TrEMBL record:
PROSITE patterns xrefs: CHORISMATE_MUT_2
Identification of the protein by name: Chorismate mutase
Stretches assigned to the Chorismate mutase domain: 4-95
GO BP annotations listed: chorismate metabolic process; salicylic acid biosynthetic process
UniProt EC number: 5.4.99.5
SUPFAM superfamilies for this protein: Chorismate mutase II (SSF48600)
Length: 114
């Protein structure tokens, strides 16, 4: 049996969903450009990859924002933690490259629109 046709309203909503997904991908790419540079600056400055005090600030801020926006704050925190775990992996890789002498003290320039 063929499934019923997808209603026009769903097709319209899917176009909006595609636009939002595109924005999220571009925003995430911009965020990773910034954190990449943070990773270099931390490695050169002898700072550790993770900063629990900064994490705490972000959790408090995003939890309040998510609640205000009607987004499940536990989901928002899971999403933040997922991204930051990847950032910390990048920071660790960058620090290891400096430690191994594969990178010099020249922190790459920031190439971003934000
Ligand atoms: O702000 C920093 O110090 C970062 O390294 C960036 C960032 C983040 O992705 O927002 C990542 C790791 C830290 O634990 C806190 C924040």
């Amino acid at each position: 049996m063929t499934p019923p046709a997808v209603p026009d309203e769903i097709l319209g909503l899917r176009r909006s969903i595609d636009n939002i997904d595109a924005a999220l991908v571009h925003l995430l790419a911009e965020r990773f450009k910034m954190t990449e540079r943070v990773g270099h600056l931390k490695a050169v400055g002898g700072l550790p990859p993770a900063d629990p005090a900064r994490d705490r600030q972000q959790i408090d801020r995003l939890t309040a924002m998510a609640t205000e926006a009607g987004l499940d704050p536990e989901f928002a925190e899971g999403f933040r933690a997922f991204i930051v775990a990847e950032v910390i992996r990048h920071h660790e890789r960058i620090a290891a490259e400096y430690a191994a002498g594969h990178l010099e003290g020249d922190v790459p320039a920031l190439d971003t629109f934000a």
